[in-house]
């Protein structure tokens, strides 16, 4: 049966879902921010006052919003469909010709603005405010970015001729950065350079360094030790000589940018798609493992689409009779479904990482599984 006035019912459903979604999203974000504020109270000292702590937490709100949007969509959708079922409004829509396929198509249209909103927040607003939030906290506390390792951050780089400023040549450079200060400044730098046979060529240390506008690192108070092989008649017992040099400053061209260093200090799940793409390219150029970051990349790409999956999971609740459970019980079921999706998504990512499964398959399986669950549930309740 052809549905009468399709645009009217689509606008009606969209208005109801958006209203419930907005209210639930606000409530969930407020709850999470409250706990964030409580955890931040212990860091208040000196120049880092309570207003700055509140500002720090509020600037993290966009990141929280992007994480919660799918769950808010699921709970909001279940609430709206349960209310429509309790008031027999959804029964009227079914009589007018709203079948399961048309319902899914309608939900896809309703989910599209939410998908765009999620992309804007997670890829634009969220990373910017997150970075600004950390800068405010760092400036107030007078601290710097440090890694979870006592020895600092380690990163692999490629060698260049002419003291590190010429074309790329065979070999590798391992860079260790003790601290990353604000405004593209680093401190306690060490570099170990090896040739293509992994023979040590030089050791370089610097007290501090800055990344200039020309795309090079300017290192200060540099001590460099170079190792050269002395020609001997017996090639099985080579002799090496070491020469130590001190430089007030040197310039060094490197593929290790402040953005890459910043990426190393945060989990891949909190990075933007563009940042992940750049870092994965850097890892591939240096023949390093990309599995964890590739899984995070595809999860970030697919994540906005989970909003439609969550709304599809909510649709079967519209077919349940009022006697099958109250609205509150259905909303509680939606919360459990959302939590199970988040847990399954995280668990499957770790299993895929351990098993070295294809990253796209690892990221795509949980949403596909829950979408299949939504289709099966929809077919079951529509026949009852």
From TrEMBL:
InterPro entries per the UniProt record, alphabetical: LptG (IPR030923), LptG/LptF_permease (IPR005495)
Subcellular location, record wording: Cell membrane
GO annotation terms (biological process): lipopolysaccharide transport; transmembrane transport
Gene Ontology cellular component terms for the protein in this record: ATP-binding cassette (ABC) transporter complex
Keyword tags: Cell membrane, Membrane, Transmembrane, Transmembrane helix
TM region(s), chain numbering: 12-35, 71-90, 110-129, 301-319, 331-348, 360-381
Membrane topology: Multi-pass membrane protein
PANTHER family, sorted: LIPOPOLYSACCHARIDE EXPORT SYSTEM PERMEASE PROTEIN LPTG (PTHR33529:SF2), SLR0882 PROTEIN-RELATED (PTHR33529)
Name of the molecule in the record: Lipopolysaccharide export system permease protein
Lineage of producing organism: Bacteria, Pseudomonadati, Pseudomonadota, Betaproteobacteria, Burkholderiales
């Amino acid at each position: 049966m052809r549905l009468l006035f399709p645009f009217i019912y689509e606008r009606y459903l969209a208005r109801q879902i958006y209203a419930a979604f907005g209210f639930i999203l606000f409530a969930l974000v407020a709850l999470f921010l409250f706990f964030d504020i409580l955890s931040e109270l212990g860091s208040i000292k000196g120049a880092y006052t309570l207003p700055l702590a509140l500002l720090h937490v509020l600037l993290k709100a966009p990141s929280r919003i992007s994480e919660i949007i799918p769950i808010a969509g699921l709970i909001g959708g279940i609430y709206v469909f349960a209310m429509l079922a309790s008031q027999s409004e959804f029964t009227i829509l079914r009589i007018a010709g709203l079948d399961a396929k048309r319902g899914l198509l309608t939900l896809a249209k309703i989910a599209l603005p939410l998908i765009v909103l999620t992309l804007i927040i997670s890829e634009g607003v969220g990373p910017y405010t997150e970075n600004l939030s950390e800068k405010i906290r760092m400036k107030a506390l007078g601290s710097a970015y440090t890694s979870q390792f006592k020895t600092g951050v380690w990163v692999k780089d490629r060698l260049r001729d002419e003291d590190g400023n010429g074309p790329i040549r065979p070999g590798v450079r391992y860079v260790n950065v003790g601290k990353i200060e604000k405004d593209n400044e680093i401190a306690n730098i060490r570099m170990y350079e090896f040739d293509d046979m992994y023979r040590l060529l030089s050791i370089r240390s610097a007290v501090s360094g800055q990344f200039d506008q020309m795309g090079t690192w300017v290192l200060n108070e540099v001590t460099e030790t170079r190792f050269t092989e002395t020609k001997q008649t017996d090639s099985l017992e080579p002799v090496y000589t070491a020469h130590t040099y001190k430089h007030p400053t040197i310039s060094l061209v490197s593929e290790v940018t402040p953005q890459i260093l910043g990426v190393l200090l945060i989990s891949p799940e909190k990075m933007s798609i563009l940042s992940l793409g750049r870092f994965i390219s850097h890892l591939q150029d240096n023949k390093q493992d990309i599995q964890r970051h590739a899984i995070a990349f595809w999860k970030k790409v697919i994540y906005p689409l989970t909003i439609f999956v969550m709304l599809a999971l909510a649709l079967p609740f519209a077919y349940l009779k009022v006697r099958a459970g109250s609205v509150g019980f259905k909303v509680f079921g939606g919360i459990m479904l959302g939590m199970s999706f988040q847990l399954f998504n995280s668990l499957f990512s770790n299993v895929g990482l351990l098993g070295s499964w294809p990253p796209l398959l690892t990221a795509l399986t949980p949403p596909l599984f829950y979408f299949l669950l939504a289709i099966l549930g929809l077919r079951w309740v529509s026949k009852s």
